[in-house]
C-alpha cells in the first residue's frame, strides 16, 4: 500500500461527512475500516433521472484525436454533482460533463504485458489497482450486466461531453454506495491535490 493511501485510511474518521447521522457515520466508518477487503461499491436502488459524481454512465462519446473518430464508452462521472444538476440555476452555466472512461482490467493487463514489463510487475500493478492502493486509478468490480468485467478509471485520462449531448444520449448505469463514493472522493483528492508534493514555490 502506498504511504499516502495508508496514512489517509489510518485517520479516515477525521474526514467523515458532517451531514451524516451518527448511525450513518458509524456504518460508513465501519465499512472503510475494512478497506480494502469489504467495501460496498454500489447502491442497489438509485434515481435514474439524476446524475451524480461517481456515477457510471454509458453511451458517453469520446474522440480519437489521431483519426477524429467518435465512439461511445462507459465512464465514471468526475464533475461535481451540483454543477451538472439541471435543478441548480447558475449565473455561469456548466457547459460540459467531465468523466473518466472505464477500461476493463483484462485489457489493461494486455497493455501492460505488451510494454515489456515483467510478469511479476504486471501482476503486482493489477493487484494494487484492485486493492485501490494505486492513487491514479479507481477500481470498480464487475456488477452483473451493468459492469460486465472488473474495470478501472484512469484519473490521467479525463474526457468531457457537452451537457446537451450528455442529456441527449447518456445512459445511467449505477450509482456508488456511500462507501464506494467516499473512497472515490479520497482517491480523487489524493491524485489531484498533492499538498505534499515537495516543490518549493516561494
TrEMBL record:
Designated name of the protein: Uncharacterized protein
Species for this entry: Halospina denitrificans
